[in-house]
Design goal:
Strand 27, helix 28 (781-784) and strand 28 (789-790) form a beta-alpha-beta unit. Helix 5 packs antiparallel against helix 6. It contains 31 helices and 30 strands. 39% of the residues lie in helices and 14% in strands. With 870 residues, it is an alpha/beta fold. It has a six-stranded parallel β-sheet with strand order 17-16-15-18-19-20. Strands 25-24-23-26-27-28 form a six-stranded parallel β-sheet, sandwiched between helices. The longest helix is centred in the first third of the chain and has 21 residues, at 41-61.
């Protein structure tokens, strides 16, 4: 039973599909029967809701908080939701509300979590968060009791120790004033355990605060040790009120051989005056001023250019460091010459020393401090210094350093906060579109993924270094965080799409991108994940490569962009609003309607609500969208539906690169083949097969004197047929490229579910482009006219036989199909379509929309429809 449960957990972790489908695909039939006998529907539902809660939490932070909050609340309150899943849903909500500044709602959900569990939790994260909420509510004693209880369970955990110190801040629950002495007792437990000097108040008459700290530790230089010099670079901007905190802590370091390089980043206040006052008192401090504000990492590079120490580290202008911090780091580097670098740990704090965790609550108050990285100066110079963006370059440098040397940066004393980082609402890490939360959705995530893609794409042994801080970028970054900020990215065409999809909508959208690039347009891409899919998955590598090559600009959530035309490649993604929408200025906002509102003509299998989609667009972008049908059929359905308010009067058939797809000579291969080869490529989905066993067999010539090739899987068809026909050969999705697969076919057959709304059929035009006659059900006549052959399922085989026996008929049918593609689907259609948007007749009300004839093909891209017979 243990093995069975393990299978179930893996199944739901890896796939949103029902567990029976996962098991059927991955394990033996005997295991399937065993699972079906052993698991009840309630057990399956329990596993599903547990995974669902975790996935909804990912969506909450991954850009869909509006819908994810609704779904998590529904899951939490669901009568069938298992208690542990109620607990996790409540925990996810508590974290979110706390991070959003609503400690009352966070506390409510933490109490729901406790009640659902029905036992004492040993998980530290909820305990720390609950204690924080209680303190914010003035219930310090209750928080203290809670933490004491869990100290007995978990021991003197360093995070619990700091949380206990917090309970003695402000006023406790009995109204007694705070106790600085008790707070220091708790904090100093961590330093004393590590053999470090305890901290104390620098001025006993003043309250305990970040700017009133000292220790009795003395500089080590008095012993006569030969100390390598450490260069400490402090970038400072508007730091006149905090710089003294950093400088006082550095001047008290036990490692005496220092140079402290304060780089004033063109501050408009008295930052430089404060720095110069300290420099006049201690010759180890040198002050430099940037002429133009360039951000902290540009300032660090300016400091690096002037550094003379063997070791280099940085220090934020509003942080306090324990006097032994630099000594701990330097001695670690001296002890291990193979060490590429090391970091220490810090805790975020309010000015009065109330400790806080990260923006997304976890079981840790103490975190590793990226900006504390100490390494040899020659190593840093070889890497080219810091990336001169305005946020997140500390982490990027560490990844680059580790990639270059094949070893990880060492994390020293993980249980000891050797730095206290001042937490302020005005910090870049806590503000708007650069908020720390954007590591999950926004500019920080985009910057991280682009950097990782660059590192992973480097040749083995290549040095991941910048040519120079002012040289070309190694990888693209959001314009918002560049040294010279880009207030608004300007593009001709902004394409909005879930670029992680793999089907026809993605391929068609990718063709729009390529067509735009070929026509010389400047293209921006905005990745909008479909809500029901994995929002944590990194962006498609093929799209990353386009950006890496400088062909497109990837726009991050929350950025500003100006575009002549916005083109949404898949309407389904707009059903759910996103956090941090673009600050968008555009002339035209188009939605390519390659997916109708429902998959089925009867209205079943709804995919989105056009009214909701339009409302989301208007709410997020302040623009009314225009719906662009991809076929006459779709246009008719849209007009009849009534929810599509603005319908484009022309149909925009999907595009293909006819230079690539139409260059194969048309061939009639009957003289060299005894049997024709027919087939199709499509997803193995119920909509892609006729509804009955008989029609599947008829349409796909089961048992006839032909070879049938099917790319994409046939499990759905085989469920109805009961077996795989002997003349079928099946290729799983992704095992062959479509062009390679199509090159072996003599006929292309495409018969979807009778109730399915097949908006166009991209696979059909790919077959036509390859010079293959296409046989379709009559429902496609309005879409393809005389470019295809039409037959009822029972007449497919007779149609194949009659065309296969007549060379001229075969070649003619193939030629008509290719001419349709050249006339309607060539890349050159895009600039014409965009130009036509300015014509007043391009839009019509949904009750008046009339499809206009498509323009003739571009003569410069016409194709020789040569025929070839043996």
């Amino acid at each position: 039973m243990f093995i069975l449960k393990r299978i179930m957990r893996i199944a739901f972790d890896l796939s949103p599909r029902p567990v029976r489908h996962f098991i059927r695909d991955r394990v033996s039939p005997d295991t399937v029967r065993f699972v079906q006998r052993s698991l009840s529907d309630r057990q399956i539902q329990r596993f599903q809701s547990e995974v669902l809660a975790r996935k909804l939490e990912a969506k909450l932070w991954g850009g869909f908080s509006e819908q994810a909050l609704t779904d998590l609340e529904a899951l939490k309150k669901g009568p069938e939701t298992a208690p542990r899943n109620v607990s996790y849903a409540a925990w996810a909500l508590a974290r979110w509300y706390w991070a959003s500044g609503d400690s009352v709602r966070a506390l409510e959900n933490l109490l729901v979590m406790q009640e659902a569990e029905g036992r004492t939790r040993k998980d530290l994260a909820p305990i720390l968060l609950l204690a924080d909420c209680l303190i914010k509510g003035g219930e310090n004693q209750r928080a203290r009791d809670l933490l004491e209880e869990h100290r007995r369970l978990l021991g003197d955990n360093p995070h619990l120790v700091l949380a206990m110190a917090n309970t003695f801040s402000d006023f406790d629950g009995l109204g007694y004033p705070k106790s600085d002495e008790r707070r220091l007792e708790w904090i100093n437990q961590l330093f004393v355990r590590a053999g470090l000097a305890p901290i104390e108040k620098a001025d006993a008459a003043r309250p305990l605060a970040l700017d009133n700290l000292a220790t009795s530790a003395m500089p080590a230089g008095h012993s006569g040790d030969a100390q390598p010099k450490i260069s400490v670079i402090i970038p400072a901007f508007k730091a006149q009120d905090t710089l003294h905190i950093a400088l006082e802590s550095l001047l008290r370091q036990t490692w005496a051989n220092l140079e402290i390089l304060v780089v004033d980043d063109a501050s408009p206040d008295g930052t430089a005056d404060v720095a110069n006052e300290y420099a006049a008192r201690d010759s180890r401090i040198r002050v430099f001023r940037m002429e133009v504000n360039g951000g902290p990492y540009a300032a660090r590079n300016a400091g690096l250019a002037r550094a003379s120490g063997e070791f280099v580290t940085t220090h934020d202008s509003d942080d306090w460091s324990h006097p032994q911090k630099l000594e701990v780091q330097a001695r670690a580097l001296l002890k291990d010459v193979e060490q590429v670098g090391n970091v220490t740990h810090w805790v975020r704090t309010l000015p009065h020393l109330f400790f806080r965790g990260t923006s997304r609550p976890s079981g840790q108050l103490i975190q590793w401090n990226h900006s504390s990285l100490m390494l040899r100066r020659r190593v840093l110079e070889k890497l080219g210094g810091w990336d001169e963006v305005r946020i997140s370059a500390d982490t990027e440098l560490i990844r680059r350093l580790e990639s270059a040397h094949g070893r990880e940066v060492v994390r020293l004393l993980p249980d000891v906060p050797l730095s206290f980082a001042l937490e302020e609402a005005t910090s870049l890490t806590r503000r708007g579109v650069t908020h720390a939360r954007t590591q999950f959705f926004g500019v920080r995530r985009e910057y991280h993924e682009a950097g990782m893609f660059w590192l992973q794409s480097l040749a083995p042994g290549a040095l991941p270094a910048w040519q120079a801080p002012s040289g070309p970028r190694a990888f693209p970054a959001p314009g918002l965080i560049l040294r010279d900020r880009v207030n608004a990215t300007r593009v001709d065409l902004l394409v909005v799409m879930d670029f992680n999809l793999q089907g026809g909508a993605y391929i068609s959208t990718r063709n729009y991108v390529e067509a735009a690039l070929q026509s010389g347009l400047k293209v921006g891409l905005f990745h909008w994940r479909r809500y029901d899919l994995d929002v944590t998955k990194p962006l498609n590598g093929a799209i990353r490569q386009l950006a890496q090559a400088g062909r497109v600009s990837i726009i991050a959530p929350g950025e500003s962009v100006s575009a002549k035309t916005v083109l949404v490649g898949y309407p389904v993604i707009l059903q759910y609003a996103i956090d941090l929408p673009l600050d968008l200025d555009c002339e035209h906002f188009l939605i390519i309607t390659n997916q109708f509102a429902s998959r089925l003509r009867s209205g079943g299998d709804a995919q989105y609500d056009p009214a909701v989609v339009a409302s989301n667009v208007e709410r997020l972008f302040k623009v009314e969208p225009v719906w662009v049908p991809i076929s006459g059929l779709v246009q008719d359905l849209m007009e009849a539906d009534g929810r599509y308010n603005r319908i484009h009067s022309q149909t925009w058939e999907p595009l293909v690169d006819t230079d690539d797809w139409c260059n194969r000579p048309i061939r009639w291969r009957r003289p060299e083949r005894n049997r024709p080869v027919i087939g199709r490529h499509a997803r193995d989905h119920y909509t892609k097969w006729p509804a009955s066993r008989e029609r599947i067999a008829q349409a796909y010539c089961a048992g006839n004197s032909c070879d049938v090739r099917l790319l994409g899987g046939t499990a759905k068809a085989e469920e109805l047929l009961g077996r795989r026909p002997a003349n079928w050969r099946v290729h799983d999705f992704g095992t062959l490229e479509p062009k390679e697969f199509l090159a072996d076919l003599d006929f292309f057959i495409h018969y979807p579910h009778e109730d399915y709304v097949e908006e166009f059929g991209r696979a059909v035009i790919e077959a036509m482009a390859m010079g293959i006659p296409v046989i379709l059900p009559h429902v496609f006549e309005k879409t393809f006219a005389d470019a295809a052959i039409y037959a009822a399922p029972e007449a497919v085989w007779d149609t194949v036989v009659s065309v296969w026996q007549d060379e001229q008929l075969y070649l003619e049918r193939a030629r008509l199909g290719r001419e349709f593609v050249s006339a309607h689907c060539d890349w050159s259609q895009l600039p014409r379509r965009l130009s036509a948007l300015h014509a007043p007749e391009s839009l019509a009300a949904n009750t008046m929309a009339v499809s206009t004839p498509l323009s003739s093909p571009d003569p410069s891209r016409s194709h020789d429809v040569r025929t070839e017979s043996p």
